[in-house]
Amino acid sequence: MAEVGGSGIPSGPYGPPARVAVLASGSGTNLQALLDRFNLGDDEAARVVLVVGGDAGIGALERARAADVDTAVVEEPGPEGRGLLARLQAARVDLVVLAGYLQLVPAPVVRAYRGRMVNIHPALLPSFGGKGMYGSRVHQAVLESGVRVTGPTVHFVSEEYDEGPIIAQWPVPVREGDDAARLAARVLEVEHRVLPEVVAALARGEVRLGEDGRAHWGRPWLPGERFELSAEEGPPEPDREGTG
Ligand code: GRF
After folding, report:
1. Rounded Cα gap, residues 138 and 134, in angstroms
2. Sheet strands side by side (includes 153-156)
3. Which ranges of 35-106 would DSSP assign to H, the alpha helix?
4. Which of 72, 109, 176, 237 is disulfide-compatible with 81, CB 3.0–4.6 A?
5. pLDDT tens by residue, 95-105
6. Active-site residue 155, yes or no?
7. Per residue in 50-89, pLDDT tens?
8. Which of 23, 29, 30, 169 to mutate to test the pocket of ligand 1 (most atoms within 8 A of CB)?
9. Which atom of ligand 1 is nearest to the CA of 31?
10. What are phi and psi of 126, to 5 degrees?
């Protein structure tokens, strides 16, 4: 990769494979996308070695067990996050991915993994993020605002909800007649492609957190020939019945 500065912030390449922990509080479809590419697929840049659930009964933990990945449950990490940090360190993880994780990550854990911990959010930050903005509330707020484009953001995790340096985004058009569920489903499909791509890039050292507090890529971000995401959707058809 191109030289992007010599800060003390750790960066890849890690491994291979980079050892990845995923923190999740829900059904875990983003986790599944990572498992499909790295654990069950043939990309050896990374491997999910630990899944931490914010609750015992969640689908993400079932997906982890089905893929033979170690699991842990941390319902309340507490302000110091000692239990969580101990689990991550015991598993010797290089990267931490928040994939639908609802708790605020305790500051000592953020510090320990600065530049190595990322979150996926289902809207284009810095809009439609922050405390309480998760799940269908995000998509509802997008619809109410009248914006015409939404889409996922992957960012480095900082001490505040959804405020860390942005690594990657991808546009998803908001369509006439969308409701929160339909929009969420279209954005989620794109999340499943963007998140593994970012994890692979972090693992290979192709993107890193610079000392200027921004993410820097050492190669073009998402070359078109590798990514034909929501581009297939194009703009909505004109309304031929209405006034246009
Ligand atoms: C995703 O929309 C993600 O962006 C958000 O929470 C949702 C998690 O979905 N942070 P899943 O559990 O990965 O299916």
Report:
1. 6
2. 70-73, 46-53, 18-24, 95-98, 117-121, 153-156, 166-169
3. 59-66, 82-90
4. 109
5. 999 999 988 89
6. no
7. 999 999 999 999 999 999 999 999 999 988 999 999 999 9
8. 30
9. 13
10. -85, 10
